[in-house]
Amino acid sequence: MARAALYDRDDLIKRAKSVFWKRGWAGTSLKDLEAALDTRPGSFYAAFGSKEALYKLTLSQYAQEGMDNINALCAAQGGLAALQTYPRILVEDPAMAGHACMLAKTFLELKGQDHPLAEVANDLLFQMEQKFAALFVAAQAAGDIAPHRDPKALARRYQSDLLGLRVLAARAPDQAKAIARDMADELGGLSA
After folding, report:
1. Residue 32 contacts by C-beta under 8 Å, 6 or more apart in sequence?
2. What's the predicted TM-score (pTM) here?
3. CA distance linking residue 45 with residue 62, whole number of Å
């Protein structure tokens, strides 16, 4: 009979995500992870295989949480309203405010080294962009966005704005909140 795990794997990934998000790939040692996860080297490797495998899991968890957040907003508010609300959440939610996007941080840190995790981060960023594009398409179909607008271009611009907004939130939170409101207003004007 297999032994039951003595830990909550999702919780361990969440704790590792916090360390990686704060310190980055290169700035996080195995000792840092073992301390944060309260594991020993043998159990760490048995649970995750490697630092890289764990980092990949944290990126996936991070991206899934972002998707879940936007999906919950869509269910509660509809596509365009969700797109208008999301930037405000990013700068006002204490769990996210003042933190740059983990996917963007990873991509920027590791792209120059041709590290495989840079491509993982890039793929996850692209999935988010596709999600935003789908929301713009739905808003266009609902008549909230003019037919001549390109949903893919809107999604790229929106994601770019979000990434910059998160950096600004770390530097100047009040200015970031004002820009998040401006983004919502601008999105509301896309029907023309």
Report:
1. 19, 23
2. 0.90
3. 21
More confident residue, 46 or 160: 160
At 148, which amino acid appears? H
d(CA 82, CA 132): 10
One-character DSSP codes across 63-98: HHHHHHHHHHHHHHH-HHHHHHHHHHHHHH-TTTTT
Answer whether residue 5 shows pLDDT above 80: no
Q: CA 88, CA 80: separation in Å to the nearest integer?
A: 14
Question: Which tokens is 128 given?
Answer: 């988010």
CA–CA separation, 139 and 9 (whole Å) = 38
Q: Could you tell me the sign of the dihedral formed by the alpha carbons of 98, 101, 106, 108, in that order?
A: negative
Kindly report the average pLDDT of the chain as a whole number.
92
Assigned CATH topology for domain 56-188? Tetracycline Repressor; domain 2 (1.10.357)
